[in-house]
Amino acid sequence: MLTATDIHLRRGDNTVLKGVDFHLSMGEMIGLIGPNGAGKTSLLRCLVGLERPERGEIRLGDKSLAHWPARALASEIAYLAQSAACHWPMAVERIVALGRLPHLGSWQSPAATDVAAVKQAMAATDVAHLRHRQATALSGGEQARVQLARSLAVGARGLFADEPVAGLDPGHQIQVMELLRGHARSGHAVVIVLHDLTLAARYCSRLVLMAEGKVAAEGSPAEVMTPGNLAAVYGIAARIETHDTGLLVVPAGLAHSR
């Protein structure tokens, strides 16, 4: 679906991405992991067209991302920003319905398909019972699920989410991760930034481990989640166990304390 080749990105005097290659296929759920400042969010913003790299190329399908019209790109790629809060005193249902805007012409009323997409997204993210509540009156975790519902309502082929489970309780974290994995398996493509290494290992089909603006390791969770990689990139000693639901990654201390 999408490929990125030799991506370099600078902010002022700081080079935040250094020759990054990336590829995404339909049906995949890719986790971008790495310590703070590794370049995960910067890469995600480049992949969705919010930042333009100074060098390299990103292609969506057979066309350069820079050549996609804005409305067409918005219907192909849905983006959920980190800690996206609801600042408008609007009903939850109206917030979620904003995800359908790329499919509507000027002053065009939503069709039955748009209404159905909004209802399905709210049900999937467990916010249907909040549909008439003002978004600004919700808790942070509820707002996060509303924003995820808005992104899902787009119906895009690709969903790119920056820390979509941050601030959620454990039950809703698992619910969201299962939802996103099912979304990918149904024929979509998902890229998420994560800090929870166990969630990344359990739910993602492929991981990209970043460090200092570069890709340090890439592959299946078992290939990436090794004691050596985690010590080198995070500076931690980790216990990695195989469970029937996938890998469990437990930080046990700083690597140098061993």
UniProtKB/TrEMBL annotation:
Q: Which GO terms describe its molecular function?
A: ATP binding; ATP hydrolysis activity
For this UniProt record, the keywords arranged alphabetically read as follows: ATP-binding, Nucleotide-binding, Translocase, Transport
Keyword ATP-binding found: yes
Domain (ABC transporter): give its ranges.
2-237
What domain of life does the native source organism fall in? Answer: Bacteria
Pfam families from the xrefs?
ABC_tran (PF00005)
Show the InterPro entries listed in the entry. AAA+_ATPase, ABC_transporter-like_ATP-bd, ABC_transporter-like_CS, P-loop_NTPase
Q: Which SUPFAM superfamilies match?
A: P-loop containing nucleoside triphosphate hydrolases
Q: What does this protein do?
A: Part of the ABC transporter complex HmuTUV involved in hemin import. Responsible for energy coupling to the transport system.
Q: Which PANTHER family match?
A: HEMIN IMPORT ATP-BINDING PROTEIN HMUV
Q: Which family does it belong to?
A: Belongs to the ABC transporter superfamily.
Under which name does UniProt file this protein?
Answer: ABC transporter ATP-binding protein
> Which source organism does the UniProt entry give?
Magnetospirillum aberrantis SpK
